[in-house]
Amino acid sequence: MGGLIIMKEVHAGGKLLKKVYVAIFLWFTGRAIQATAKVDKEVKKEFDALPDDFTFALGCLPNGPWMVVGKEKGKVKYFGGDLNSRKIHLRLVIKNIEAAFLILSFQESTALATTRNRLMTDGEVPYALSVIRILDIVEVYLLPKIIASLAVKRYPSWWSFGRKLAGRIGVYTRTLLGI
Amino acid sequence: MDLTNGFAFTCPFKTNSGNKALENLPVELAGLNAFKPLIITSRPLAGCRAISTLKNAFGDSGMTLGIFDGVTETADLSVVEQIRDIFVKGQYDSIIALGGGVVVDVAKIVNLAVSQKVADARQLSPATAIRDPLGPFIVIPTAAATGMETSKYAFLQGKSFVSVHLMPDLVILDPRLTRAKDGKAVAEAGFAAFGRILEADIAPDRNPLMHAYAFTALRFLRENLADAVNKRCNKKASLAVANAVAMSGCVISNTDQNVLHRLGQVFQKIVHVHPGMIIGMCLHPFLDDCMKKDSSLIASLLLPLGGDDKYAAMPEAGRAGEALRDIYEFSYEIYRSLKGKIPRTITEAGIQQYLMNDVMDIINQEPDGAYLRTMIDRVGGGSIKA
């Protein structure tokens, strides 16, 4: 029987490509949230309703990457990917890098991923809902309709053409320039 | 259901089912305060692909895993002792069982040995008291599951350990692991689950929580088993069957009504056949007997099996007959699609006389041995002659 028995100890590998994709996506989205808060009145209103110095993080377990966004002196800012840089009031946690890739490559919408037990919220639920609404609006600006429809629960077809076009130009310009 | 009589129901495990469910393992382990798991499996029984899929699911977690893939069909307490030794020396803190049947039985007893810090697992016996919860234990059933993986029972070399603490903390059902190599394995697991659940659900002492599990599992099986047997690439159907099989373990742990289950276990122990084969054979005579005793209990099966419309359209007096017809059609469909791969009688199964004698010896020791014997006779067991 001894010959049949196999025991080995292995170390979990990494998923570098998926991690890089998620990191780039979060970096770009973080900057886009900062930009959208200046361009879109609805996003500005959502942030205004949140407490001063409110900071949230979106990322995945166990080792990130993370995106930290918050308010500083009334302005919305992207604070990079370091969770220790500020006090975090709300953490939206994706349970693993595979789930993060499914969500951020638009194979699953945020709502669907939540029902499939891929996300956890660490903080107040009303704040989390505000952040989800903000993320939905940012995704509508960043993505073409065909992809954004997969990412958000309901694509805002009631938005005027002018809002979408002007908003996209503003969001992309500010995101790329980081202003 | 008379609620004034009082009832108890235990289901201590969490189920994590669906696409990429395996990838939740690191987070779930952390939730159980476990960071260095030992995976117990069998390369021939679970398959190299399943082991590799499980290993990849830990990607990016930074964890160190032990993989013991040498469990065989003939594993005994000396294998348990060997794994216990590995667990202690490797300073592991949790156990993951990947596979079904004997693999999970071994893992349950290893968990008992390491949690109770016994010096030698070979000293364990069914008389060992299991009073406290055991260490973190996760079961990942594959297509080789028999339904007993999630139950409070562990059988090893004729020894039967029973305790709710043997049930897992977490069950993960991932469609990448639940697809079977052949339809026979799916059908056997499905029949085993179907028979056990059905028996519990028509018992006079059923309770609302057990009924909720039974209802869901019966509907999953009725709607998906034929598809899972015929189209093995159908992930949705095989996952639904795997869920029902996992639920059957919980149901059987909460009931004393287990005629079909006991028959299946005796044949598994003596003849080494899948319990689902025997449960499938005995289903019809068992239901005929139940129909004679109290047809109202059979009538209640029409709702999970036939569906809402059929149940609503059928007058109360005809529901029991319609439910039986539905079950017969369902099992006939499975047997027909397998084209004789699963025998319908003990004669067809070609079980040797000396093995049948051993089976009868065990059955005669049961309190309801006479009834069990008639059941075996009615499925062709009585016609086997030396």
Overview of this protein structure:
- The complex is a heterodimer of chains A (179) and B (386).
- By secondary structure, chain A is α+β, with helices and mostly antiparallel strands.
- In chain A, 50% of the residues lie in helices and 17% in strands.
- Chain A is built from seven helices and six strands, in the order βααββββααβααα.
- In chain A, helix 1 packs across helix 5, helix 2 runs antiparallel to helix 5 and helix 5 crosses helix 7.
- The N and C termini of chain A lie far apart (68 Å).
- In chain A, 35% of the residues are buried.
- In chain B, the strands form two sheets. A six-stranded parallel beta sheet of chain B has the order 1-8-5-4-2-3, sandwiched between helices. Chain B has a two-stranded antiparallel ribbon with strand order 6-7.
- With 386 residues, chain B is an alpha/beta fold.
- The chains are: A alpha+beta (179), B alpha/beta (386).
- Chains A and B meet through strand 1 and helix 3 of A and helix 1, helix 3, strand 3 and helix 4 of B.
Concise synopsis of the structure shown:
Chain A is an alpha+beta fold and 179 residues long. Helix content of chain A is 50%, strand content 17%.
Query: Which chains share the greatest interface?
Result: A-B, 25 and 31 residues
Arrangement of strands in the largest sheet of chain A? 4-3-2-5-6
Strand fraction of chain B: 5-15%
The count of helical stretches of chain B stands at 18
Our Rg estimate of chain B from Cα atoms comes to 21 Å
Uncertain stretches of 5 or more adjacent residues of chain A? none
Oligomer: heterodimer
CATH topology of the largest domain in chain B: Dehydroquinate synthase-like, alpha domain
- Please indicate the percent range of residues of chain A in DSSP E strands (runs of 2 or more): 15-25%
Order of helices and strands of chain B: EHEHHEHEHEEEEHHHHHHHHHHHHH
The CATH homologous superfamily of the largest domain in chain B is termed Dehydroquinate synthase-like - alpha domain
Gyration radius from CA atoms of chain A, angstroms: 18 Å
SS elements, strand count of chain B: 8
Please summarize the sheet with the most strands of chain B: 6 strands, parallel
